[in-house]
Amino acid sequence: MTGRGESNEALESSILLIDDPADERIAAYRNIREKDVVGRQGCFVAEGKVVLNLLLSAARFRAESVLVLENRLAGLHDLLAKCPRGTPIYVAGAAVMDAVAGYPVHRGILAIGRRTVDLSVSDILARLGPRALLVTLCGIANHDNIGSIFRNAAAFGADAVLLDQTCCDPLYRKAIRVSVGAALKVPFARGGTISDLLHELETADIDIVALSPAGRTDIRIAARAKRLSLLLGSEGDGLPRAILDRLQTVRIPIASDFDSLNVATASGIALAHFAAPGPPERLETDDD
Fold first, then answer.
1. What CATH number should be reported for the domain holding residue 201?
2. pTM of the full predicted structure?
């Protein structure tokens, strides 16, 4: 068994002081304020203590390196001790950190992560239990919305998020930050077209409920199926009419003199409703 003294020694040996923002060892962090690291050899940026903790705890991801503001190092000992042996922990002063990372939204903690397990839609569907709750996204191209939806999915215990090919990347720096690391916690997979995703859901015997301002059923009286996926579309265009016409649809009542809810807000309301315990009934529509 590794003792605390040995753990301390391993951590100390991984700490590398950086005094030049041009140091090639931290090249992956350079100018991330201008160009996101997603797409550079499959890596992504994690920011802050909470997100780093999730990165170091997630089986599907690993930390390639960590960059820490020197005045935060002492308070991060227990967290950094979770890093696999040999993970570089770069420590820099404020001037170097700001020159490398840009505006100080990072709270003095940055990490470069890498996805080690790339789940497919079929992988996720094969692992679902008898009362699964999913979120399926169509055309969500705003990173703030993606991040907020993942945060809601984590908060209400959704089993996974499925994205069609037109959605933006949940591992984009801003999406991870807005999700407070939930994009590293909630399993997700990207499929092809939304029609492809719906076909896979239906084949797996999962009921699909589409959210729309014109939904046929008031969400307050909608009961959930045993295995359910909520389907959300982009703001503005929303879900394609052909999809809404063939699926069960729900609406969230709002004031008559207002247009619609933000899609992330709608996801939180819908998840709170359908995640609540209740009898495994099928959704009733106005057409029944």
1. 3.40.1280.10
2. 0.88
Q: Are residues 129 and 242 in the same domain?
A: yes
Sheet holding 89-92, edge to edge: 15-18, 89-92, 61-69, 109-115, 43-47
**Whether the predicted pLDDT of 33 surpasses 90:** no
- Nearest Cα to Cα of residue 81 among 58, 59, 57: 57
pLDDT tens-digit map of 232-286: 998 877 899 999 999 999 999 999 888 778 999 999 999 999 997 654 444 444 4
> Encoding tokens for residue 207?
């009921």
Domain boundary among 115, 131, 165: 115
Res. 35 pLDDT band, cuts 50 70 90: low
- CATH for 93: 3.30.1330.30
Same-domain status, 31 and 105: yes
- Tallying the residues shown for the chain, one arrives at 288
For residue 50 the two structure tokens come to 């909470």
Q: What is the dihedral of CA 122, 126, 127, 128, to 10 degrees?
A: 100
Same domain, 155 and 270: yes
**Coil/strand/helix, residue 74:** helix
Closest CA to 194 of 225, 239, 152, 158: 239
- Residue 11 — left, alpha, or beta (φ > 0 → left; ψ -120 to 50 → alpha)? alpha
Q: For residue 123, give both structure tokens.
A: 């992988």
The residues facing 210 across adjacent strands are 231, 249
